[in-house]
Design goal:
Layout: H1 9-21, H2 26-41, E1 45-51, E2 54-60, E3 72-77, E4 80-84, H3 92-106
Antiparallel strand pairs: 1-2, 1-4, 3-4
Helix pairs in contact: 1-3
Length: 126
């Protein structure tokens, strides 16, 4: 368990993400995460569903596409990834924390062949 001194602003930010996405469908939750990441850290996120060789946009930045040369794909499970063209704007510890949160959010979507976009996020804490 973390002491009060060890709780960072980023930990509070992740807890806020959890609170704001708790009862949302997956695509809505991912949209909220992308919006909050953009306003707080300037991080641009696109969430995609992996359908074989095709990656299909499901949530995130609207009206823009990532710059191909600088895109960093982060696999959340075998059927979902997040793309960012400015992933490096987050410190490594924050990157790891955000990935852990997103993997937890996407965790229930991995076990069957249905589309992930209609799933509810997990109810427990990340």
């Amino acid at each position: 368990m973390k002491t009060v001194k060890e709780i960072s602003d980023f930990d509070i930010w992740v807890e806020n993400l959890h609170t704001q996405t708790r009862n949302l469908a997956l695509t809505e939750a991912l949209g909220v995460v992308a919006q909050i990441a953009r306003t707080t850290y300037g991080l641009r996120l696109w969430f995609v569903e992996i359908l074989g060789r095709r990656w299909s946009y499901i949530a995130g930045e609207h009206g823009t596409e990532p710059t191909a040369a600088s895109v960093v794909p982060v696999h959340l499970n075998d059927r979902m990834a997040v793309l960012s063209d400015n992933w490096g704007c987050l410190p490594e510890k924050a990157q790891a924390g955000l990935v852990a949160f997103l993997k937890n959010l996407a965790r229930l979507t991995q076990h069957d062949g249905q589309s992930q976009t209609d799933r509810k996020p997990p109810q427990g804490k990340p």
